[in-house]
Specification:
The chain is mostly helical. The chain has two helices and two strands; from the N terminus they run αβαβ. Strands 1-2 form a two-stranded parallel sheet. α2 links the parallel β1 (16-17) and β2. The longest helix is centred in the middle third of the chain and has 16 residues, at 28-43. The radius of gyration is 12 Å and the shape is flat.
Length: 57
């Protein structure tokens, strides 16, 4: 994640969603929570604007 955070400050981009491995671990329950969080971001149209970084809830 730190590589993407650094790149986000150095290069133009369409917007980046960063996710925490603690909040969304690579397990069945963690992936289910990630799916729900991404669905909410897309449904609510809360994508980060150009050159911005956001964290899904």
């Amino acid at each position: 994640m730190s590589t993407f955070a650094r790149l986000a400050t150095q290069m133009p981009h369409a917007g980046i969603l960063l996710v925490s491995a603690r909040r969304f671990p690579r397990s069945r329950p963690g992936l289910a929570r990630l799916e729900i969080a991404l669905h909410e971001v897309l449904t609510d149209k809360e994508l980060p604007p150009t050159d911005r970084v956001a964290w899904p809830a």
